[in-house]
């Protein structure tokens, strides 16, 4: 089966659009060359005042509508394989079959829209894949894209939308699985090159460094015939990570290295010491979130939230609560040791178990363990006050 990409304006697509009210389906478009609803298609289901309206809203806002697929029956006869709902919605709108609510609360059909909005809709472009092949092949393929579905992922779609010299060069760099660098990159970047996930990461990193998203970056560079900025930035990030961390751990894969590079690349690190710390933290049974270890180290080993230190279990909390409460009652003081030391009315208050939280007497970062010996129950207020120090 062959497939080729083509662009049409809405104006071309809806030329000669006919909608059959009785059968509830869009019939023809493209000056009669396009059959919108071949027999094997499901019926038009977007006429719900939501999905049909969303299609038109997307056009007015300049959002891409996604790929459309045509089947070439002959050289100038086509059928819609995928995109029937979208095309019918557009055709019905421009023939005044439904209305939109505008920003002032007025309902407009196509004819009552301002001329610039009409033009915006008519000039919008649809990206269409023309497919050629045996009927059985086409139907098989149609089933694959729609049902079993390997739907195009976000980067594959962007590559189609912004197709051109830049995308061609970028794909050559980031989507070949036999690229010798892939082995190294795979320690830090998730996904597979074939599904464009390396390209997606490379674009995200360079775009974010400018405060952009990758869509904007691709739009800006669409007609460039160089990808040197993209490559240089990506290599800088990878070189930086592999320079700071000599060890390669599986939890490093897929971290936001672009963001971490932007935040920390101007700081200097002693790689020997970093490596020692990584090994120490990997051996620490109280750390639940190992992929937080790298940012924790980069940030100067202060933000323990990144590591999700193991918390006390219910049995420990209950036994510590019982011991503290029994002693407090015997002495006529509060079972929160901090309340007991204070001079408010709370200094004799006995809190319920559910009103208290478990606290590390000696903090984890100072070597404190997560067991009964290092656990005390505090009232919520004092636990929070201690946690914030
Ligand atoms: Zn208290």
Summarize the structure in words:
This protein is of the alpha+beta class and 389 residues long. The protein is 43% helix and 14% strand. It contains 17 helices and eleven strands. The strands form three sheets. The chain has a seven-stranded mixed sheet with strand order 1-9-5-6-4-3-2. A two-stranded antiparallel ribbon has the order 7-8. Helix 7 crosses helix 9, helix 9 crosses helix 10 and helix 9 crosses helix 11. The radius of gyration is 31 Å and the shape is elongated. The model has no long low-confidence stretch (mean pLDDT 89).
The total count of strands amounts to 11
CA(first)-CA(last) distance: 66 Å
The total count of helices amounts to 17
Biggest beta sheet attributes:
7 strands, mixed
Distinct small molecules:
zinc ion
Shape: elongated
Uncertain runs with pLDDT below 50, 5 residues or more? none
Helix content: 40-55%
Order of helices and strands: EHEEEHEEHEEHEHHHHHHHHHHHHEEH
Category by helix and strand content: alpha+beta
* Strand percentage: 5-15%
Average pLDDT confidence is: 89
Main sheet: strand order = 1-9-5-6-4-3-2
Rg, Cα atoms, Å: 31 Å
Key features of this structure:
single chain; 389 residues; alpha+beta; seven-stranded mixed β-sheet; two-stranded antiparallel sheet; 17 helices; 11 strands; binds zinc ion
